[in-house]
Structures are given as structure tokens and as C-alpha cells.
Design goal:
alpha+beta; Jelly Rolls; Arc Repressor Mutant, subunit A; 2 domains; four-stranded antiparallel beta sheet
Amino acid sequence: MLQLLQDTMSVQKRIVHAGDSVYQVGQPFQCLYVVSTGFFKMVNLSDDGREQVVGLHFRGDWLGLDGIANGRYGCDAVAMDTGEVWSIRYDALLEAGARTPALLTAFHETMSRELARDRDSMQSLCTLPADARVAGFLRYWADALAQRGLRTDQITLRMTRAEIGNYLGMTLETVSRSLSRLARVDAIRFCEKGRRDIHIPELGALTAFMQRSTASLGAAAVH
């Protein structure tokens, strides 16, 4: 998709650093953004004024799709590390899509994937026990890296424990306990240089952990 965009239309490239906003809620919508490198979070304010992480984005993902319907961005897009985003005017994208049907098809496929991902994420938040949510989050992060040709056996989380809890609807303490339980069964290992660096010996172990956690909850509910 990135190569197709470069071949068919003009893009503006911008380097961002951790904490930088790509756009903010309420700003008029004009452009969509594509992640070239780095990791980004979508942030909303809850009714009581707290920040709520509502989405995560990786290389190749589009930012700003929520602004198409109402003409304004619906949340803040914030960089979690140093990265690069490409800015694309929406009207120019539609014109290029009319000339190059493959571009429009790729754009629609991206929108469909994002809808499916949001649905799956919401389903996990609503149905999985805490330990399974954390394991699923790590599996989701690793799968996103794998889809982009990056290594999955060792990942650096670009979020604090508090941010992970915010995203998963859990407290910081619950996230920490779940990570410790994952480490005790050797589903993950903490690297020496920092507890944000996590070694995943086998991705299947995370899936198995999720299944055991869910089965245990189901058995407890029956009894």
C-alpha cells in the first residue's frame, strides 16, 4: 500500500517523536495519514476528563478515518515513539482513486480491516478475563509485527503498564499481576534491560494461556 501511494500521488512526510500529536479531536478534517514507521495511539477523553486509549496503529495503518463522516477528527492521534507519517489530502486521494482503481480498492480493504479489528478488540474487552486480555494484547502486538515482516520473538512495548490497563479496561496492578503470571508459566520472559522489553518464546503459548484462562473462568461460573 505504501509503495502504491508513492507511485500514484503526492504525499507529505513528517517525522514525529513520542508524545507528538498528529491531529487533535475537533480539528477540521482535511487529510488522512498513513503510518510509515513507528507506533501510534488514539486517545479520547472520558466523561470524567480522563484520557482513554481507544486504538493502536502500526506501520501501514491509516489515521483519521473517523473524520470523514463529520468533517472533524474524533480523537487525538499521538505518537508513542519516533516515527514517520504520510499526510494525504482526502480530496486528492479520491481523485487519484478515480484514476487508479487499485488504489481505491486498497483503501477500502484497509477500512474493512480496521472495522474488523475494532470489532474483535471490543469483543475481547467484553468477554475475556483479565489474564486472557493481557495475553491477547501481547499476541495482537506480535501478530501486527509479523504482518509487517518484523520479528515477534522479542518486542518492545511502547506503552506503560498504566496505558495498557487503560486500553484493556483494567488497573495497572491487574496488568502487572497478569504479566507476572504469564512469566511464571514461561509464556513470556522479561529481558534484562527493561520490563518493556519482552521475549516471547512461542506465540502459541500465549494462545494456550488465553484458552486456559477462559476455560477456568467458564468452569468457575458453572460451579
